[in-house]
Each structure stands twice: as structure tokens, then as C-alpha cells.
């Protein structure tokens, strides 16, 4: 297996074998706090990333590295538990093979979820935010080295306006508060300084996190529509007295996961792939 294309081809063949007659058009990428959603999937078939050579090998605890195919009501979907972060390797293309494999099996919508810090006093820890747009503060791209004109991807509606309005309507119908805001991608793994948070607020972002943006770029390049949902696990650095830690992020994420799972279930039944 010597090229990225071979890895994608092998992954696609393995996925097709496991999917059988299923034809999912929606993929959900689960971030911190969103993991329990996988238990909502009916008629589930699990494929470990280890069987999919285009998918990343994962090290960090809490990220399982499993693709689960199944359905929610009438919606066929695949759920990805586990993502490779740029802070693990310094490279932003860790999910490239996975996103390309999804596109090749016919996925048309990528629903991304993550944990983020809130930079807006009106958005409190445990609450949820719809990503309206992003800031690629890192200024790295997973498309560097790609051939062809297709690499010049239009990012003017990176997060699909139609999916966003469907998500807002689903949240309102379910009685779940869903804020809206711009997500700023920082490399991490260290948290930000208060001065960096002041900078990001000045630049127009309401939430900050260490993921999602590379996958959105990859998905747009592959022709997928994207929806992004953040769970706000903390006020960003300098915005309250809480010391930031990964343990604190995970414990707030776990506390918020019941509502996050309810939102995601409602959204998935409302969107039309
Ligand atoms: N900063 C960056 N990433 C994060 C944060 C934060 O405050 N909270 C959760 N992920």
C-alpha cells in the first residue's frame, strides 16, 4: 500500500463491504462531550479505524477510533468517534484520508462537533453553539500540495446556510438553546493567554478550539456540505477565575453531553442530505 489513493481505495472497499445495502449520505464526527451520541445509532455496525488504512491511528484517550454505520429514524448515517488533531503532529491533514473515503462512499453532509471555549459572556459553559463561520488563525491548510484548480476552494459559505437554518429550527422545536457564532481555530495543545483571547474577540470570534477547521476545509474540497456544532466547556482564558485544563474540559463536556446528544438527534432528523 504505497499511496494515499491506494489507502482511500482500500478503505472505501472495506466500508462498502460493511455497509452492504446501506447508503448513508450523512457523516457525524464526534468531538469531546459528544461521544455518547454513538449509543443512539440503531442497527449499528462498527468498523475500527485500524481496518481502514486511510483513517488515522489515534493515541489520545477518550477518542475511540471507530466508525459506526447505522441509522437514526429514517436517516442512514455514519458516525466517526475519534479525530486526529493538528496539535498531535503539527500537520493539519490528519483526517484527509478519512474525509476522502467518506466522500467516495457517497457522503454528502458532514456534521462536525467539538468542545470549545466561549469568548462571549452570554454563552455559558455547558451550552451549545452553531458555528456560522470560522477563523483559520493557524493559517495552515490540509490542502497544501494538492494539484489542480479544485484546491482553490470557495469558503464563503463554509457552513451550509440551509443546514444551519434547519439546525436552528430543530433546536427551537426541541426547546434547546443554540447560540450562533464564529469559531476560531488555534493549534494548541496549550490553552490561550488572556491577551490571545482579547485578540480573537477583536477579530470577531465567539468560540475558540483546537479542531474542526481542517476537516471543514477538506470536506468543502471534497464537495461535502458542512454543519458545525460546539459544546462550550469553559469561559476562555481571562474571562473567569477558572484555571483551564483538559480534565476540566472533559468533565464539563460529560456534564453537557445529555443535552448535546438531544440536540444532535433532533438536528439529524431535521436536515435533508
Ligand atoms: N481553548 C481552546 N480549545 C478549547 C477550549 C479553550 O478554551 N475549551 C475547549 N477546547
Strand and helix map with partners:
Layout lengths: L3 H16 L6 E5 L11 E7 L17 E7 L2 E7 L4 H4 L6 H9 L4 E10 L9 E9 L24 H14 L3 E8 L8 H9 L4 E3 L3 H9 L3 E11 L10 H25 L3
Parallel strand pairs: 1-4, 1-5, 5-9, 6-7, 7-8
Antiparallel strand pairs: 2-3, 3-4, 5-8, 6-9
Helix pairs in contact: 1-3, 4-7
Keywords:
single chain, 273 residues, alpha/beta, Rossmann fold, 9 strands, globular, binds hypoxanthine
Oligomeric form of this entry?
single chain
CATH fold assignment: Rossmann fold
Strand coverage percent: 15-25%
Query: What ligand species are in this complex?
Result: hypoxanthine
Q: Which segments are poorly predicted (pLDDT under 50) over 5 or more consecutive residues?
A: none
Shape: globular
Percent helix range? 25-40%
CATH superfamily placement: Nucleoside phosphorylase domain
Mean pLDDT: 94
Q: Please work out how many helical segments DSSP would assign.
A: 7
Question: Can you identify the CATH class?
Answer: Alpha Beta
Q: How many distinct folded domains?
A: 1
Number of strands: 9
**How does CATH name the architecture?**
3-Layer(aba) Sandwich
- Radius of gyration, in angstroms, nearest whole number: 17 Å
The biggest sheet, with number of strands, parallel, antiparallel or mixed sense and barrel status, is: 5 strands, mixed, barrel
What string, H for helix and E for strand, traces the elements in order?
HEEEEHHEEHEHEHEH
Task: State the distance separating the first and last CA atoms.
Answer: 33 Å
Structural class: alpha/beta
Going across the major beta sheet, what is the strand order? Answer: 5-8-7-6-9
